[in-house]
Every structure is written in structure tokens, then in C-alpha cells.
Design goal:
Low-confidence stretches of chain B: none
CATH superfamily of the largest domain in chain B: Bira Bifunctional Protein, Domain 2
Number of helices of chain A: 16
CATH class of the largest domain in chain A: Alpha Beta
Distance between the termini of chain A: 48 Å
Radius of gyration of chain B: 43 Å
Number of domains of chain A: 4
CATH superfamily of the largest domain in chain A: Phenylalanyl-trna Synthetase, Chain B, domain 3
CATH topology of the largest domain in chain A: Phenylalanyl-tRNA Synthetase, Chain B, domain 3
CATH topology of the largest domain in chain B: BirA Bifunctional Protein, domain 2
Shape of chain B: elongated
CATH architecture of the largest domain in chain A: 3-Layer(bba) Sandwich
Largest sheet of chain A: 10 strands, mixed
Structural class of chain B: alpha+beta
Mean pLDDT of chain A: 95
Largest sheet of chain B: 7 strands, mixed
CATH architecture of the largest domain in chain B: 2-Layer Sandwich
Oligomer: heterodimer
Number of strands of chain A: 28
Distance between the termini of chain B: 50 Å
Mean pLDDT of chain B: 90
Number of helices of chain B: 22
Strand content of chain A: 25-35%
Strand order of the largest sheet of chain B: 8-11-12-16-15-14-13
Strand content of chain B: 15-25%
Chain lengths: ~550, ~500
């Protein structure tokens, strides 16, 4: 989740009230953000992804100011008509069909403000813009642009400009391979014949979204006063909200918002539009959901503390809010406004009967039996390695591999738990013998009958090691356990590469093979760098459950 | 009387050792006298010391011993003797002497210096001749030679006599002749009370250990039993144990069982459909990133449940019949089919809800099971950990009940102060972060997420919109805090010593 940094003093000015430190910390947390820390005049806050409008100092301060009651209700954002146009050509329709644009004038940029704007742009890119896939944002010094601006697509070879912070002019394809930002985001244009560009009436290329701005006309400096902002992507509504988030933040920074005409092939739209929209809701419904008994007057006050307006039966939602999909989204904001801390904690008197799952009951009984026999329970991971499952065990069992594990020690799902038990012994070589352990584990194997194509079973594994462990000893443990569980079984001779030939058996219960039992092959023991004989059994608990 | 009691409680080993202890008696001497093993003597001395009958002292001595060259010299004579012997009859050149006396060149050189200093040799026309003085020296045993002979047993460096000291100084300057070693030795001295106990006459007929035949034939009658020291420490034995994390899991499960919750089961590998799509997590949500979630290589895709596919698609695209706007994008069945390791047990909640009928309500479910996150193993991160999941499906449930269940649970876990804080999850509204107050660190600590399931989740799965209170809480941190464990990996390292000795979960 994105964190933003804010200057404490500037923030206080924006909020319009000084709060004692502890109160400020508490209010920030209870507004619905994770306060990381407040230190040396810097506030670090983690903003949840549903509130991209709080990714700027201005947006955050606006929300907090309402929440603590300084300036509540809908804010007014005056918009002047600039009369400037952005012409969207048909050629972008297959590449990056939409843009939403605006101009903000009379900004007094200094280094700190430039950093703030870039921070907002980057955080929006990463979160709401889904790493520029959904939204790419460009902010340009308007003074260097000669309108009207055109949004069109060209062959990459025909796009030539000097990208931001690059020594020379190169073409569109070269940008993707040579410019660092091109390399990071080039995959977004992969496979396209044409790349989108913004270009002004003098044929100066402003940028090639979603990759990079031009160094000449796409870089804000402390001399910049007026900016042109565009958001481009595939869903106009999303772009528009993103644009609104930016222009309202710039407004709160002291800028003057001016609209532009977007001339699409089939229609003309004016952006930004900062009129709030209506979300109707039923008060009873929200009261029931929250367990409250609010009247209209009270709800109005609560909504206004969250920056909304209220008119009979519906909320007026600010044009920069991206997360209001359902009346219950209002319920959450009403709850926040009411204060989560002010809700009573109630356990209702509803009679339901508790019940442990059958397999867990069986696992508890198995545990009881094995612990009684002096075995120690272990807890091992279901993720493991091919070395553990196969190489060390001298087996070639097909394993289910993970696509993307960051660790090679844990990149397959286990097929059996015996290797996990022997691994435990291998990690405890320096401790006192005898060692007698058991553990439960989920095992995985392919099975096309399953919804996922994978069958899962619960198993219990036992491993016993000491100077004089043999088949008899491990069968005694197994037999004692099965007698406790009241299950009759027989053991048949079988073969298994991990065991000593002639000392491994398959356990059969009512015709079903549900366990292996035997003495581990000395080569396997050597593979694990262990020195003493090991006896094991591994029982399929899921299948055993059928006979209980 | 007191001494008699003590005497009667002595172990046979103690009884054998005690009379052989006087003042600063060496253990090795006791071993010789008693014919016992050294370990037995040491054990007996420890017991006796515990009873204040002897005092045991460990001393360190620096012993001077022969080194490699020293052993050789002792057998074949010191280089200077061999040097003089070789020219006893006739003068020779240095080279010839070296051969006859079989000396190394450094030995030869040091001999020349040494013997000239003693005026034992003269150099004439390139040859070395022995002097009268030299002949005299040859007749006597040198101090160094005497010293070397004594070293075969080793001498205490700090009690060397003057002549030995002189030889020691000379020889220690020479390479590999002598060496010093620190030797630890144990001595025991008898105490006053020890003497008294030692002098007590013990009845010869006392019984050391009781046997079955004595009981049967009554031969113990009229005899005394050796008294035991009942305050002794005994060697540890190891019991079977349940894993301490599972003890805590069992406790947590019991809390929910007592509150009338039923336990849920389900698969670890799930399709994205159940883990994410059914939970209204948009398909471009960062939670689906490969950095966070383990995907399965093969089989890469699972099947979509026909009964729910289109309903889930609709809520994502336009909200369906839930009154929601939906996410407003084109939903892809391909993405939903991808197999992954469940990122939360909320997937079990979704599947449980999908199987419920209206007449089953109200209903409550829980699970305490593993979930997976693509992280590397670190002192504060695991890729496989346990989540405490709970849902309450009740037409009359509301936000206050959610707070009630959570407060109750954490109070039983030992955290009476719980704070619900606004959070964000795509599938709950309101969404809640659950913090508990850490009594030692004196700060709020995040313990998990919670909320009421959105209609976009419940309506497609259940058919009707019913409030579902839900939570997914971390558990490892509670256990770590209880056991004072600071490295999360220590919960699952399966160290035998830890598993044998860690106390039970006592809540």
C-alpha cells in the first residue's frame, strides 16, 4: 500500500487547525488510514487503495479537516473555461482510446511543490492507475505548448523526440529499449503497431503515454506557472476521476482550474467536471447494517464530516471519490464519521451449535495416541523442495510446482510427509537420542476429477530413530495407535525406493491402501547425513476417516 | 545420631570413596585405591560434596614436559655432547662433524657458540679441536641432561629448584626441546563431619534396592534400607508433546466452538475465482500480483463453478442485481481460472456461504488454518502461516455484533483492549482493521482484518443479501508474544530441545 509523506506545518495550515500530537495520531488512524509515524515535522501515512483522493497532502488535509469538523460538507471548486481544445484522433481508438484533460493556472512552483506534484502523480500511477496500465498521467508546462493539442497514434519509427532526462532525440521504439522508463513500462505497448502521442499545433511532441514526457515541453520547473494535465487510458470514467483528484489537489495548492474541450471523433466533452453526483440510499438499511438509529439530521452531519453533501434520500458524492459503488460504501463512511470507537460491543443471543470438523476430531485422537506413546509433535511446511521430496529419498514422484516462488527451497507442494519428518531429524542431529517425532501435513497430487486438478489429503507421518530402531518398533507404535482408534488393518509386503527391500509394508484397511510403514534405506539416511536407523510410517488421515 | 543417618544414606560408591579421601587427595589416587572408574569416583565425590562430607577442589598446574626434540635428545644425547664426542679423538672440519654427530645445521651453529663460550673447543686451520675443558665436560652429566631425564613424568613449572630452573631457561630457548602444558586436576578433602560419618560403623545387612524376590520371601524383614537423598536432582526424561503452536490453535478453536461456531474445511489450492473473484476483488487488484501470491505451474488452471460464474461476472462488470455499480471492466474467466495457494481462509467462508440455504440461518463458522503468501523466510515473515477465520451469517447481524465477537475473542486471548479502526478490503463494508493493545510495548498492534461482507459477495453466492460478519486474524504474533519468541521462524523450526522443554500453552 502506498505511503505518503507530508510536511506537518503545511498540513496543519491546510487542515486549518492545530491538534495536539496524540489527538492528531488518533484522528488520522480513525479516519481510515494507517499512520506510520510522525517525526521531525514529517508525517508518514499509509493510504488504503480505495482512497486515491487522499494521496496528496491537499486531498488528505481536506478529508481530515472535514473529519475533525473544521470545514465540513462539499467543497466548491470554481472552473473557468479555457476555450482550449484537445483533439482526439481516430488513430488512438485501438491503442489508448481515451483522455481527460485540464489546465491549472497561476501555480507558484518551487522545489517542494514540484516534488509534491510528482509524488501525487507517481502514487496515482502505481495504485489507482495500476502501474500506468489503467491510467497514465502527464503534467506539462502549459507555456511551452501551442494549442490545440492533438492525441494521435503513429508508427513508433515516426515518433521522434528527446525523452525526459535523456541526452538526445530517439524514436518511439528506441525509447522502449534505451530509456529506463521505457524499459520499465514498454510491455504496456508491446505488440502494437502504433504508439500514442500528444502533440501540439507546432508539431512538438509532448509525450508518448504511458511511457514518457518530452524533455523540452514536458518538464515542470520552478518557472512553470500554468500546467496542462492529461490522463490517458481505456475507461473514461476512471480517467476523469483521476483528473479530478489531481486538479482539486492543485486547486488547494492555490491554482485556478480551467476546463478544456475534448473533441472526440463522435462527440465533444468538457473536462474536468467537478459536479458531485447522487447516490440514493435508504436510511433504514444503513441503520440496520450498522446497528444504529440515526435520523436524517444526524446522517447529514455525519456525511458532511466525510466531505459529502446530503439532500433528501441521497448523498452528494464529491467528483474525486473513486470508491463509492453501493449505498453500503456510504454506510462505511457514516460509521467512520460516527466513530468506530463509539459503537457498543454486543454479542447477540443467537443459538447455534458449535461443531469441530470430523477430520480435526480424528487428528486430535491420533495426536492423543502418539503423544501417549512418547512421540513429539512437529509442525512442518507444506511448501518444500524437490531435493527433500525426491532426491534425498531416492524417489521420482511427480510433484506440483509453484510458478513463481521467490525461494528455491520452497517451490513445490509436498506429495508425502515422511521427507518432512526425516528433515526434522536431520536438523536435530546434535540433540539427544532417541528421537521420536510425528506431524500432520497436507499432501498434493494431480487429479483431473478435482475442480483445481489437484487432490489434497491430510496425512500423519511418524519417524523414530535410535541405535536399535527396527520394523518391529515402528509397527508397535502403529499398532497401538490403530487399536486406540479401533480400526482393524493388515500389512502387506510392498516395494518402495526409500525403504529397505523386504522391510516395507503397505497397510490395508477394508481393501483400501492407506499407509506405508517400514525401515528407511541406509542410502537415504546417508543422503540426510544421519547416522542411525530410522523407522517411519505415513497414514492417509483423509481416507482413514471413511472407516471411523 | 545425625552422622549415622547420613552414613546409612550413602550410596555404595560414596561408601567406597569416602574412606579414601584425606587432605587434597587426587582423584587419580582414589581411582587407584578403590578400583572404581574415574566417572564413578567423580560422581560419588559430587554426591559427598552435596552432603558436605568432602570439599572438592579443581586445581590447575603448569607442567613442564618433553617436546619432540627433547625426546630425541634424551635417547641420543644433546647436540653439544654429540659434537664433543665426535672430536674427542681427532679434530674435524665443521662439515665432517655435522655428518659424524648427525647434527642439523642450526644445531651445529648453536653448539659452536655454546661450546666456545664454555671454552670447550678451539678452531684451528678450519678444523675444530676439543680442549681439556671440553674433555672434562664430557665426563660429567650436564644440568640440562639431568633435567631432561626428570621430565619424563613432568615437573610443576612453579616449584622448579634452582638448578632445574637454570636448565629450563636454557632449554626453553631451544627449538622443540621442552613444552609446558596446563593440567587440570581434581582433589578432594574430607570435612570434619565427613570424618565423623566415615567412622560410623554401618550395618552390613542394609538393603540397597528392593527386589521382587525380597518381597515374596520376606527377606527384607529385620533389615535396614539404605536412606535416599530425596532432595536430589534427577536426570531429565522426555515426554511426548503436542506442538506448542497446535496447543494454541486448539485453544483458539475451543473459543469459537464454545460460541457456537462450526469448523470449516477446504482446499489449500484454489482457483482465483474462489479466492478472489467471488470476494469481489477486481481482476487488476495488486493482491493478485505474482509478488504476493503463489500460483501453480501445472495444472495452471482449474474449472469455474457453473452455478456462480455468471453471477460473479455480473457483479464485477456492472454490479448485477446487487444495487452496486460494479467495477466497470470486462471480467475475464481466464484470470479467474488460475490456480493459486489460498491467500486467505476467507475463501473457505465464501465456499461455505455458497452451500448455505436460507433455512440454515443464522449460522456461524470458523477455521484456524494455513494461508500462503509469496515471501521469503525471515525473522518477521513466513510464506505459510495460520489465519483465524470466522463468519456469522445472520439476517439480524450488524456492526455492533462484529465488535462484540472480536472483543470477546481477544479478551480470551489475553488482550482486553481491542480497537477497531477503519480499514479497506474490497469485499467488506464497513472494513475494519483490528488492533489490540500490547501491554508491554504499550502500543496498538495490528492483528488482522474484519468487516461485513458486501452484497456483491453474498448475493451471488447466497442468492439473497444477508449481512455476514467476517474476520481473518493473524495468530502467530499472539503465540510469539505468549512464549516470548522474537523470531517468527522459531515457531516452526522444530528444534528438539525447544519442543521437549517449552512449557504448555496455559490459557
Amino acid at each position: 500500500m502506498p505511503t505518503i509523506q507530508m510536511n506537518h506545518e503545511v498540513f496543519e495550515k491546510l487542515v486549518g487547525k492545530k491538534l495536539p500530537l496524540e489527538t492528531l495520531k488518533d484522528r488520522i488512524s480513525m479516519l481510515g488510514t494507517d499512520l506510520e509515524k510522525i517525526e521531525d515535522n514529517v508525517i508518514d501515512v499509509e493510504v488504503f487503495p480505495n482512497r486515491p483522493d487522499m494521496l496528496s497532502e491537499q486531498g488528505f488535509a481536506r478529508a481530515l479537516s472535514s473529519f475533525i469538523g473544521v470545514k465540513t460538507g462539499l467543497r466548491k471548486f470554481p472552473i473557468k473555461k479555457s476555450g482550449e481544445k484537445v483533439i482526439i484522433e481516430k488513430s488512438v481508438s485501438k491503442v489508448r482510446p481515451y483522455t481527460a484533460c485540464a489546465i491549472v493556472k497561476n501555480l507558484k512552483f518551487n522545489n517542494e511543490k514540484i516534488i509534491e506534484v510528482i509524488q501525487l502523480q507517481e502514487k496515482l500511477h502505481i495504485t489507482y492507475g495500476r502501474k500506468r496500465k489503467k491510467v497514465a498521467i502527464g503534467i506539462y508546462p502549459f507555456e511551452k505548448i501551442t494549442p490545440p493539442i492533438r492525441f494521435k497514434a503513429l508508427k513508433p519509427e515516426d515518433i521522434k523526440f528527446r525523452p525526459l532526462e535523456f541526452p538526445k532525440e530517439i524514436n518511439g521504439r528506441q525509447i522502449l529499449s534505451q530509456h529506463p522508463t521505457g524499459r520499465d513500462y514498454g510491455h504496456l505497448l508491446e505488440g502494437m503497431d502504433m504508439y500514442p502521442i500528444f502533440v501540439d499545433s507546432k508539431d512538438n511532441i509532448l509525450s508518448m503515454p504511458p511511457i514518457i514526457n518530452s524533455h523540452e515541453v514536458g518538464k515542470i520547473s520552478d518557472e512553470t506557472k500554468d500546467v496542462f494535465i492529461e490522463c490517458s487510458g481505456f475507461d473514461f470514467k476512471v480517467l476523469h476521476i483521476c483528473l479530478n483528484i489531481i486538479v482539486t489537489a492543485l486547486h488547494d495548492m492555490g491554482g485556478e482550474i480551467q476546463s478544456m474541450e475534448l473533441v472526440y471523433p463522435d462527440k465533444t466533452i468538457v473536462t474536468p467536471n467537478l459536479d458531485p453526483w447522487n447516490m440514493p440510499f435508504k436510511l433504514d438499511y444503513i441503520n440496520k447494517w450498522l446497528g444504529l438509529d440515526l435520523d436524517e439530521k444526524k446522517v447529514k452531519v455525519l456525511l458532511e464530516k466525510m466531505g459529502y453533501g446530503y439532500e433528501k434520500g441521497h448523498a452528494l458524492v464529491p467528483a474525486y471519490r473513486a470508491d463509492v459503488l453501493h449505498p453500503l460504501d456510504l454506510a462505511e463512511d457514516i460509521a467512520i464519521s460516527y466513530g468506530y470507537e463509539n459503537f457498543d460491543a454486543i454479542i447477540p443471543n443467537v443459538a447455534t451449535i458449535g461443531q469441530q470438523s470430523k477430520i480435526e476430531v480424528l487428528k486430535d485422537r491420533i495426536t492423543e495416541s502418539l503423544v501417549g506413546l512418547g512421540l513429539i509433535e512437529t509442525s512442518t511446511y507444506n511448501l518444500t523442495s524437490k531435493t527433500q521430496q525426491n532426491e534425498n529419498m531416492l524417489t521420482h514422484i511427480p510433484l506440483i510446482e509453484l510458478q513463481n516462488s521467490i525461494s528455491t527451497d520452497f517451490d513445490v507442494l509436498r506429495n508425502w510427509v515422511t521427507p518432512s519428518m526425516i528433515e526434522v531429524l536431520a536438523n536435530n542431529k546434535h540433540h539427544e537420542y532417541p528421537q521420536e517425532v510425528f506431524g500432520f501435513g497436507t499432501v498434493f497430487k494431480k487429479d483431473t476429477k478435482q475442480e483445481t486438478g489437484i487432490l489434497e489429503n491430510e496425512r500423519v507421518g511418524v519417524a523414530i530413530t535410535s541405535e536399535d530402531v527396527d520394523f518391529t518398533r515402528v509397527l508397535q507404535v502403529f499398532d497401538s495407535m490403530m487399536r486406540s482408534l479401533g480400526v482393524e488393518y493388515k500389512v502387506e509386503e510392498t516395494e518402495h525406493d526409500s525403504f529397505i527391500p523386504g522391510r516395507v509394508g503397505r497397510v490395508i484397511v477394508k481393501g483400501k491402501k492407506i499407509a506405508y510403514i517400514g525401515e528407511i534405506h541406509p542410502e537415504v539416511i546417508r543422503n540426510w547425513k544421519l547416522d542411525y536407523p530410522i523407522g517411519v510410517f505415513e497414514l492417509n488421515v483423509t481416507e482413514l476417516l471413511e472407516f471411523i | 545420631m545425625h552422622e549415622k543417618k547420613i552414613a546409612e544414606s550413602l550410596h555404595p560408591l560414596e561408601r567406597a570413596v569416602l574412606p579414601n579421601v584425606s587432605r587434597a587427595t587426587l582423584v587419580t589416587d582414589i581411582v587407584k585405591k578403590t578400583d572404581l572408574q574415574e566417572v564413578e569416583v567423580i560422581r560419588a565425590l559430587q554426591w559427598l560434596e552435596n552432603k558436605s562430607l568432602v570439599s572438592v577442589e579443581k586445581t590447575e598446574k603448569e607442567l613442564v614436559l618433553l617436546d619432540k626434540n627433547g625426546i630425541f635428545y634424551l635417547e641420543n644425547g644433546l647436540p653439544e655432547r654429540r659434537f664433543l664426542e665426535s672430536i674427542k679423538k681427532e679434530a674435524y672440519s665443521m662439515k665432517e662433524i655435522m655428518e659424524i654427530a648427525s647434527l642439523e645445521s642450526d644445531e651445529l651453529n648453536s653448539c659452536i657458540g655454546l661450546l666456545k663460550g664454555k671454552a670447550a673447543v678451539l678452531l684451528e686451520k678450519g678444523k675444530v679441536r676439543i680442549t681439556d675443558n671440553g674433555l672434562k665436560i664430557l665426563e660429567k652429566e650436564m644440568l640440562e641432561e639431568i633435567f631432561l631425564k626428570r621430565l619424563s613424568q613432568g615437573l610443576d613449572k612453579h616449584t622448579l629448584k634452582d638448578e632445574n630452573k637454570f636448565a629450563y631457561d636454557n632449554l626453553s630457548r631451544r627449538k622443540g626441546v621442552i613444552q609446558t602444558k596446563t593440567i587440570k586436576s581434581v582433589t578432594a578433602s574430607i570435612t570434619e563431619i565427613g570424618k565423623k560419618v566415615s567412622s560410623v560403623k554401618i550395618s552390613k545387612t542394609f538393603i540397597d534396592s528392593l527386589s521382587s524376590s525380597m518381597i515374596k520371601d520376606g527377606s527384607f524383614q529385620g533389615k535396614d534400607f539404605r536412606r535416599y537423598d530425596v532432595s536430589i536432582n534427577v536426570p531429565k526424561i522426555n515426554a511426548g508433546r503436542k506442538h506448542f503452536v497446535n496447543q494454541a490453535v486448539r485453544y483458539i478453536k475451543q473459543i469459537w466452538l464454545d460460541l457456537g461456531f462450526k469448523e470449516m474445511e477446504g482446499n489449500h489450492v484454489q482457483t482465483s475465482f474462489w479466492d478472489l473473484d467471488a470476494l469481489f476483488v477486481p481482476q487488476d487488484h495488486p493482491a493478485r500480483d505474482v509478488q504476493d501470491t503463489f500460483y501453480i505451474k501445472d495444472p495452471k488452471y482449474g474449472k469455474l463453478p457453473k452455478a456462480f460464474e455468471s453471477k460473479v461476472r455480473e457483479v464485477h462488470e456492472n454490479g448485477g442485481d446487487t444495487g452496486s455499480l460494479g467495477w466497470g471492466y470486462k471480467w475475464s474467466p481466464e484470470i479467474a481460472k488460475e490456480n493459486l495457494l489460498r491467500t486467505h481462509t476467507t475463501v473457505l467462508s465464501a465456499q461455505t456461504i455458497s452451500k448455505l440455504k436460507m433455512e440454515d440461518l443464522p449460522a456461524k463458522f470458523f477455521s484456524v488454518k494455513k494461508v500462503y503468501r509469496n515471501e521469503s523466510l525471515g525473522w518477521k515473515s513466513l510464506f505459510e502461516f495460520i489465519q483465524v477465520e470466522g463468519i456469522v451469517i445472520d439476517p439480524d447481524a450488524n456492526f455492533k455484533h462484529l465488535k462484540g465477537y472480536l472483543k470477546n475473542f481477544f479478551a480470551k486471548m489475553g488482550f482486553p483492549d481491542v480497537r477497531l479502526r477503519p480499514g479497506h478490503f474490497p469485499y467488506t463494508e464497513p472494513s475494519v482493521e483490528v488492533d489490540v493493545f500490547h501491554p508491554i510495548k504499550k502500543q496498538w498492534i495490528e492483528f488482522g482484518g474484519s468487516g461485513i461482507f458486501r452484497p456483491e459477495l453474498t448475493k451471488p453466492l447466497l442468492g439473497t443479501e444477508v449481512p455476514v460478519l467476517a474476520w481473518g486474524l493473524g495468530m502467530e504474533r499472539t503465540i510469539m508474544q505468549y512464549y516470548g519468541i522474537t523470531d517468527i521462524r522459531d515457531l516452526y523450526k522444530n528444534d528438539m530441545k525447544q519442543l521437549r522443554e517449552i512449557p504448555f500453552w496455559m490459557r
